[in-house]
Amino acid sequence: MTVTSTRFRISVDPTGHDASPWSWSVYRYGAEQPLMRSTAMFSKRSEAEAAGQEAVADLRLSKQREERQELQARI
């Protein structure tokens, strides 16, 4: 199974920091450990959610490029 066909779950959690209380983590469905976590903190939950969704989109694009390059190398 490739990352492009994998389903992801984004978790947005409070960090405990007053000024920027939100962060995100990306998990494969069924996995207990995250694939990636935000290094930035966000002042709004919605901002953290949007940034997590952008990270998943970037992950999928990166994996698609890798798969294309592997396919072209086989030809």
Features:
75 residues, alpha+beta, 3 strands
Task: Describe this structure as you would to a colleague.
The longest helix has 30 residues, at 45-74. The model has no long low-confidence stretch (mean pLDDT 86). A 3-stranded antiparallel sheet has the order 1-2-3, covered by helices on one side. It has one helix at 45-74, and strands at 8-14, 22-28, 36-37. The relative contact order is 0.20. It is of the alpha+beta class and 75 residues long. The protein is elongated. The two termini are 21 Å apart.
Quickly count the domains.
Answer: 1
Backbone shape: elongated
The share of residues in extended strands comes to: 15-25%
Instruction: Kindly state the number of beta strands.
Output: 3
Helix content: 40-55%
Largest sheet: 3 strands, antiparallel
Provide the residue-averaged pLDDT. 86
Give unreliable regions as ranges: none
